[in-house]
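USER:
Working in pairs, take the chain set out below, taking as long as you need, and write a paragraph about the fold.
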Amino acid sequence: MKTKKCLGIYMDHSIAHLMELTNGTIVSNIVESQPELQAEQQIEYKDESHSLNKEQGQLSAYYKKLGDVILDFEDVILFGPTEAKNELLNILSVSHLFEKIKIVIKPADKMTEIQRNTFVKDYFNTSI
């Protein structure tokens, strides 16, 4: 019997904690949204639109990285305290590449690593 490839992503606009669940074990990884963005946010731009365009471009690249990772899975849960999970799902839902991947969104407050891992295990153990 083939094991279903499951992924939990706890995310906000700056970092995504990826938790791959295989045979009851979590393997974690992190994807960051352009770490240099945080440093550059300290600089004031005279042209606000330049700052906004740069931020949007970095967010798009971040969501693309996450989309590339998600393509390798069959069942994905997006959760976290911000609207980033909804924004990512909206982007993915317009692409036919993600049609056969079950992607679910769940609200979640701030969590520790142990809480995130437990959340992912509990979700996939009840949904499979």
